[in-house]
Amino acid sequence: MKFSKKILETFVDLPADWRELMEDVGLEVKSVDGDIMNLELLANRGDHYCYLGLATEINGRAGTGVKQLQEKGLKYENAKRFVIDTDKCIAYSFVPFDIKSIKPAKADYILESSGVNVINPAIDVTNVVMLEYGQPAHVYDADKIVGQVHIRETKVGEKAALLFHEGLTELPAGTVVIADDEKILCVAGVIGCHGAGVDENTKNVLLETALFDPVSIRKTAKELGVCTIASQRFERGGNLDAVKSGAERANYLYEQISANQNGDAEFSQRVKLPVKEIQMSGDFVRNELEIDISDKEINERLSRYGFIMSDKKYVVPNVRTWDIKGFKADLIEELARSIGYNNLPSHLPIAKIGSEPTSAELRKSQIDSYLVDNGFFEVFTDNLYSPKHAKLSPVPEHVKIENSIEGGYAFMKNNCIVQAVELVSKNLRVKNREIRAFEWSKVFDFDKKGIPRETNMLWGIVNGNKESALTVKGLLENLFENLGLDVRFEYNIEKPDEEDNLLMPKRRGEIYYTPADALLGSFGEVSPGFSEQFDIKNEHPIYFVLNTDALLIAPKKKTKYESPSNLIASVRDISVSIPYGVSAGSVAGFIAKNYKVIADVKITDVFEKPKESLRNITFALEFKGTQSTEELNSLILEIMNAANEFAKK
Amino acid sequence: MENLKKELSNAKTTQDLDNIKSKWLGKKSELKAKFDDLKNIPAEKRQEVGAELNAQRVKIEEMIENAKTEIQKRILNEKLANDNFDMTLPGIGISTGALHPVSVIEEKCIAALRRLGFIPVSGPEVEEPKYNFDLLDIPPHHPARDMQDTFWIKHEELLPRTHTTSVQSRYMMSLNGDESKLPVKIVSPGRVYRNEAVDTQHLAIFNQFEGLWVGHDVKLSELKGTLEFILREIYGPTVKIRFKPKYYPYTEPSIGADIDLGDGWWTIVGAGMVSPQVMKNFGFDPDKVSGFAFGFGTSRLAGQFTGASMRELYGMDLRVFKNIKGVK
After folding, report:
1. A288 to chain B: which residues are within 8 Å by CB?
2. Residue A205 belongs to a domain
């Protein structure tokens, strides 16, 4: 909010380092343009939204006093012209003025400094009072009011002709309005209406000052989509005292421009606000703030903010009744601001012992290091996505967001593959083909009772010239070996889940944690049909996803050290012709299962013969024990024949 | 010997040397024949002749070995001279990736706070208003609960959390008001969600890092000391720090900490003493138990450290992260 420094100085003396002081007490100076200061004010301090409030806060620190403005006292009578019909109006006042001879208000500078338009003298005075005292005020053309004024709540379907709005606007039921016998004059504390507005022909006005329930004002302003200086002030909680003092300041200002009171001032308070009192000793302050401060100084500093000691208790001033809750901590905060947070002591708490990472945290760190060492970049994608993403998801049911204002955030994501493939697409568009990325993420779905639940996932995506499903398989094999986890890889998945269905059937695998026979995750080459939906052509991204809730806590396998044998095992290669459709792994498994003399079978080479629809696979066979050359040759011949026969079948 | 010298000087390969060796020292060599003839030499001269023949053999072996060394050296030199390997070609191997800058900041903060005994805790991202708002003294009419600020999965029943303070609520409530479980020293890094318009510097989903210390007689001075400690761990010992008043519904007093690295003041941390009402809500007597809380916008810190915009940091363009790798 914008204020004039010159005008502020008519309320309080500012020191040379005024900007530092203001920031030090919570009045953040965002910018200064000549005499105009743009301030960012604390959200809970409605009292700061006026010159008097700023001056009071500055005086809380400086202690140089606040200069009082001139007011002209009013003698209030009971309300006759109006009736308060709702508890959402705490207090209300009317003061009539004759403005037939009114002169210009000379209020241009104070109004324009804060971005308020100069309209006409009667209205300008109300705006000056609002900027000076923080008390919103309003004037009605007294001659346009029909019958008695009621401060009441609207019924269903009631409409009003709001200022700056075309036609009639339907008001939500329960909106607090000021209405006469025929029409709604004003939406209380938010915006005026046509009907009893002041214009160049107005001769008599009724000055309104009031205090409304802040929650009610905030709801109304939000529902109508209207934000005025008055609504901003009222929704943070107004000042009961200013209902009268604001009217008295207006009375003085009107008198200065030849507008005079021409009837009884009327005041009514419908709701009695509780008097807040806080009991706090000097010892408490000295212990909490760890400073040497006398009881007298405590009282003096608190009195600058309006907290007066009475019967050993501090009475909270009306202007602060909304943000002060009644705890000793409230007063500690006032004192801390008065003294300055930077002037209070500071020291580290005594920490007996540091903490160590848990095994899950260490494992996550190990996985991070492994992936980074292997060229992966960690990314953060959104856990919410658009209807377009949701449509691409392999799982139709989504946790929906009721009120997203950005269309991109309509659903909580229930898979990771959509964003993973989108990442490939986005990088290909900027000619970046070599992709290795991963993310620790979450997916959201519903449990059996229909309650949203979340599952922690680690996903990765790989793309590039030298990448294939086998490179990712190798990466994962090495990862699990590094982690010491006993896992097995399975292929030929009979019942793939929805996400795995987006991977090529013969280029995908599942990973099981063997001790619990639990599915840990899956990987595979993304199906071209799915990639094409992201405009990916002639590329073969490979995706993996792991359930990290299991991954991070699965116990490591226990292995014992074995000294390497001095006997160098016999290793012989055999080549087997395998028709397309037969897996090399099944042939290796056949050999290992049927020849107990074989200690290990490794696939060392693959030679494709597409014209013959077969592959020549080289297997390196490691033999147990010792055999003569003749025995080995005989065995190799036998195994090769058997393997070829198995492959043909 | 002159002949041998000549033959050796003509030799080009080690094979040539093998042939020369065979000729001069082999079974059919002249020297071998002389050795064989020793038996015919009179006994009194045999020793003398034998010694002379041995000397000849040693000399021949030495000459051949020297010639071999020369040839090997020449061959190696030729091989090295003819090597066409191009070392200006790119190195082969996997270049390393990198953790996300937000993860790096989080790890840095956690490492610093572990020294004070803090432990990281996590909580659900889909949260109940009770933990996200109510326990934190953010009543239903509070602006922070506005439809504009909060994504609602079901209005006033379920939401993606708006701050990681919800994790602190859950943790504190799990203690059931049992003072013997104090002190609590936790940090809760994680993603949060705000229903706000998105631009290059504002996101609807970003990361926060919050800390909570609750115990007996925890003081404002200790909050200040802890914040100074963390900020110096992150920004170095010479960073300038100042404190100023702030407002958060769940702390009182509430403060902010600004830093100055030579380019003006930046607000980095929001913090405060846990408000008495919140302490009551957590099931503890605020006259006996006190604490402080603080929170960083780790996304903003990551942007500040790397120079990348929020949108870049939360985007999918891997070139951003490759470029950030070199930024210290």
Report:
1. 219-220
2. yes
- Any CB–CB contact under 8 A between B309 and chain A? no
Q: How far apart are CA A473 and CA A494, in angstroms?
A: 19
ipTM of the complex: 0.88
A568 touches chain B (CB under 8 A): no
Residues B3-20: pLDDT tens digits? 999 999 999 999 999 999
CB spacing of A382 vs B196 below 8 angstroms: no
Provide the residue type at A328 as one letter. Answer: K
Q: Which of B214, B217, B222, B300 is nearest to B250 (CA)?
A: B214
Distance (Å, whole) CA B31 – CA B59: 12
CATH number at residue A542: 3.30.930.10
Q: Is A589 on the interface with B (CB under 8 A)?
A: no
Contacts of B229 in chain A (CB under 8 A): 348
pLDDT in tens, A170-227: 999 999 999 999 999 999 999 999 989 999 999 999 999 999 999 999 999 989 999 9
**Same domain? A263 vs A282:** no
Two tokens, residue B315: 């985007």
Work out the minimum CA distance from B86 to partner chain A, whole angstroms. Answer: 22
User: What is the residue whose two structure tokens read 């207006």?
Assistant: A250
Residue A487 CA from chain centroid, whole number: 39
Chain center to CA of B197: 34
The amino acid at A499: E
Shared domain for A255 and A294, answered yes or no, is no
Q: How far apart are CA A23 and CA A6, in angstroms?
A: 18
Q: Measure B83 CA to nearest chain A CA, in Å.
A: 28
Q: Which residues sit opposite A94 in a β-bridge?
A: A208, A266
Q: Do A51 and A3 touch, CB atoms closer than 8 A?
A: yes
**Residue A68 falls within a domain, yes or no?**
no
**Yes or no, beta carbons of B277 and A325 under 8 Å apart:** yes
DSSP state of A137: E
- Which among A333, A434, A440 is the top mutation candidate for probing chain B, defined by the most B β-carbons within 10 Å of its own β-carbon? A333
For A609, phi then psi, to 5°, come to -125, 75
Domain-ending residue, one of A314, A341, A368: A341
B122-167 pLDDT, tens digit each:
999 999 999 999 999 998 877 777 766 899 999 889 999 999 999 9
Q: Which domains does chain B have, with CATH numbers?
A: 2-81 (no CATH), 101-325 (3.30.930.10)
In chain A, the number of structural domains is: 5
Q: A145 and A287, same structural domain?
A: no
Touching check for A446 and chain B: CB below 8 Å? no
A25 to chain B, any CB pair closer than 8 A? The answer is: yes
Contact indicator for B223, B271 with CB cutoff of 8 Å:
yes
A18 and A126 assigned to the same domain: no
CA-to-CA distance for A223 and B39, rounded, in angstroms?
A: 129
Q: What residues of chain B, 279 to 308, have a C-beta less than 8 Å from chain A? A: 286
Å between A414 CA and nearest CA of chain B: 13
Same domain, A93 and A150: yes
Q: Contact A61/A340 with Cβ under 8 angstroms?
A: yes
Whether chain B has a CB inside 8 Å of the CB on A353: the answer is yes
For residue A511, the one-letter residue type is: I
N residues, chain B: 328
Domain span at residue A477?
A: 359-551
Least confident residue range of A108-117, A204-213, B284-293 = A108-117
* A386 and A529 both lie in a single domain: yes
When CB atoms are compared, the residue of A24, A332, A384 closest to B193 is: A384
Q: Which residue has the tokens 């002037």?
A: A343
Q: Which of B20, B227, B217, B29 is nearest to A290 (CA)?
A: B217
**Are A603 and A508 in a shared domain?**
no
Q: Give Cα separations from A577 to A120, A587, A608, A645 (angstroms).
A: 99, 10, 10, 10
Contact in structure between A174 and A220 (CB atoms under 8 Å): no
Residue A300 resides in a domain: yes
